[in-house]
Amino acid sequence: MIRAHIMPLTVLLPLVGAYFILLVGSKHRSLARNVALVTTGATFAMVCFITYLVSNQGTLFYHLGGWAPPLGIELQADPITAFLLLTFAGVSFFVILFAYDILPDEINSKVITRYYALYLVLLGALLGIVLSNDFFNMYVFLEISSIAAAALVAVNGDKLAMEASIKYLVMSTLGSGTVLMGIAGLYMVTGYLNLDYLAGALPQAYASYPLTVLMTLAMLTVGIAVKAALFPLHVWLPDAHGSAPTSSSAILSGLVVKVYIAVLLKLLYRVFPLDFLTTLPLQGSLLVMATLGIFIGSIMAIRQKDIKKMLAYSTVAQIGYVFLGIGLFSEKAMTGAILHVFNHAVMKSMLFLSVGLLIKYSGKRTIADLAGLGRVYPIPMIAFSVGALSMVGIPPLSGFISKWYLGLGALEANHLPFLLVLLLSSLLNGFYYMPIVIAGFFKKETVEIQTHKVPMGAQISLIVLIGATFFFGLFSNIVVDFLAPTVQGLFEVFGGGI
Questions:
Q1: In a domain, 343, yes or no
Q2: pLDDT of residue 241
Q3: Most CB atoms closer than 10 Å: which of 25, 171, 324, 477?
Q4: Residue 498 confidence (pLDDT)
Q5: What is the pLDDT of residue 470?
């Protein structure tokens, strides 16, 4: 029974957990975090089972209510989908495990129940976006995730958090509106919302309504770029991620901006033929915006004195890497982009979580005040250092692997200047990460530091994330081999033009 309905249950479980927390959590606040932890853990286990099924049986399909598309709602899980599901569910579980003992000290106890409920709603929406095989349900989950994410930013209720949340909500709404108009345009010219039926009907639609199809592609791409914080549409991200609680910053920077990239992947590689896309200025636009995002995000990160703002601007640069991989339109680059979605989710979550602990125990947010903390709190600073080195692209860490495949993709696509982009960007990453690592272990403390015991849940989460960074760097072939047939299929299926 569960096996047959595993995909919808995976989306439903976090939503049921959120409802249960709101139902009983106000009277039993300690129960809320236990329910959130168990629910995210169970969701992660179900996602692992989906991945096992996909690896053994191939692509999975599920029709809600037994109604087949195009009338019914379809969920689909292929290797890329399963890998993204593992990324979102796995990181979410270890973030909530980290927050188990930390969160009560970061936010008002009166809103902690609602925080956990919103967290589960966000997780359910992220998984729903990844699994959905039609634009209507994808859009519904996009809106749910946007509202939940904005609420997680504003949960503290202070002026900066509220301002950042409103800015995020306004920009997200603009992006959502643009996406909705694009979806409406596609439905108008094809009569379908299911991705497979859309792909089949698009050639005839383009022959009859070429301008409409081009406009819908432009609106969808721009709307997704706003929500994914691609430069120069990133203006909401630094304030939102810098003002949120530690667990919110980790989930927002590590996961939320990535789910919109999953939508873009489905749009560009499953609906529109690649040789059609290469005739448009889309590829050039993506590559230019990605390159600017990589450099300007890194330069802005170098200029920051607040450590969380620095990490937020770093995310702008890292999003540029993913869009660079998508825009190169090559198999190796696509593999690198998908790998970087995972690697950045792990690395950036680890960075935000470790910094959250250092801020909590030192009472300081400025980069200069973190000097010497590595000798007092070794696990958080080691976690930060591993994440920082992986961001720079030092082998054998996982960040090196995704950059390696992006470089191979640039060679494969005959876009050699982007090799230089990758090399220079790694150098810039070193400029703002390495001084923090060196100062954390080898410089004298600039503030008085009191020793506190790091909670066990936080230690386990950081150790697991450190282990994942090394494991997926040393054994990246496991993931690459898992993804390779699907990535190759994307480029083979859409060989013909519109």
A1: yes
A2: 65
A3: 324
A4: 40
A5: 92
* Two structure tokens written together for 179: 């996406």
| Count of beta carbons in the 10 Å neighbourhood of residue 58 | 12
Is 293 contained in some domain? yes
Tell the residue number behind the tokens 């506190």, with chain if given: 452
Q: How far apart are CA 352 and CA 95, in angstroms?
A: 10
**190 falls within a domain:** no
Report the predicted TM-score, pTM, of the whole model to 2 decimal places.
0.89
**DSSP sequence for 194-239:** BHHHHHHHHHHHHHH-HHHHHHHHHHHHHHHHHHHT-TTS-TTHHH
pLDDT tens for residues 357-414?
A: 888 777 777 777 777 777 777 888 888 889 889 888 888 888 888 888 888 888 887 8
In-domain check, residue 86: no
Is the backbone peptide bond immediately before 281 cis, with ω within 30 degrees of 0? no
CB atoms near residue 452 (< 10 Å) = 11
The count of structural domains within the chain is: 1
Residue type, 410: A
Residues 42, 44, 48: CA angle, nearest 5 degrees: 115
Question: 3-class SS at 77?
Answer: strand
Counting as low any pLDDT under 50, the low residues of the chain are 494-498
In which domain, by residue range, is 425 found?
A: 283-498
